[in-house]
Amino acid sequence: MLRLVIIDDMQNARELIESLVKKNCKQIQVVGVAESVKSGIQVIKQHNPDIVLLDIQMQDGTGFDLLNKCKPFNFRVIFISAYEEYALKAFKFSALDYILKPIDSNELIAAMDKASSNLQQTNTSQNLEVFENNYSQENRDAKKIVLKTLDSIYAVKIKDIVHCQSEENYTRFFLNDGRKILISKPLKEYDELLSELGFFRTHQSHLINLDYFEHFKKTDGGFAVLKDTTVIPVSSRKKDLFLQIIDNL
After folding, report:
1. Neighbours of 121 (CB within 10 A)
2. 54 Cβ contact list (under 8 Å, min separation 6)
3. Which residue in 22, 54, 21, 20 sits closest to 39, CA to CA?
């Protein structure tokens, strides 16, 4: 039986989560609840949970304040967040687990199942640092993304990504220092994350950082040539829009 602690400053949210977990997650036992950073720290120390459902904004601080005071910790964290597009982007860049308020029962159950089957993949302090950095930074050059491979976790600056290439359901990142990192997620997911940060998907299989664009070759339909001489195809469907964008660079 896995031990769960729920920390949220709204009583109705705590009661709803506890009720849903007891009804639908037989492998999980709610061992404690708390309504603040201070009481949450006490409950965690008392019960040594496997999983913590943690509200971000509370009366006496944030969930990150709590985690910083609990370091080092070995429990899996799932954040509870009110909808805010900027915060959700930061979560996705940081590879942190979260559920949204108002609490949806199916989303909560799915998060519990995922946490239960992946307890060894705890949220590292590195992931938290990337979140806090991205959430507080307006400057694109300071933003980072967490890239997880089978055996490593990388915190990579967005500005250091030259281009990304689809390899079936995987994405290979090419960095400006020559490193290549293969991630088991499709390119579509990174297109959605990076398109607002100066990246353009020139082709179904290619996403480029426009900072590294050097010139356009018109031969054979069109190619984007990057500063490191990499040649990237531009699909006929994307060609006109791409040319408009590079005209404004």
Report:
1. 14
2. 7, 8, 40, 63, 66, 67, 77, 78, 79, 80
3. 54
Q: Can you tell me the mean pLDDT for 185-195?
A: 95
Range 209-215 contact pairs with CB under 8 angstroms and sequence separation of 24 or more: 209/159, 209/161, 209/162, 209/163, 210/245, 210/246, 210/249, 211/159, 212/162, 212/163, 212/176, 213/246, 213/249
Give the orientation angle of helix 125-136 with respect to helix 63-70, to 10 degrees. Answer: 150
The torsion angles phi and psi of 95, rounded to 5 degrees, stand at: 60, 40
d(CA 6, CA 205): 42
> Hunting for tokens 């995922």 — which residue is that?
114
pLDDT at 239 over 90: yes
Alpha-carbon radius of gyration of the chain: 21
Q: What is the pLDDT of residues 14-44, one digit of tens each?
A: 999 999 999 999 999 999 999 999 999 999 9
Q: Is the peptide bond before 72 cis (omega within 30 degrees of 0)?
A: yes
Q: Give the tokens for residue 44.
A: 């965690």
Q: Taking the alpha carbons of 121, 110, 14, 21 in that order, is the dihedral positive or negative? A: negative
pTM over 0.70: yes
The order of strands in the sheet holding 231-233 is 213-217, 223-226, 231-233
3-state secondary structure 77-120: EEEEEECCHHHHHHHHHHCCEEEEECCCHHHHHHHHHHHHHCCC
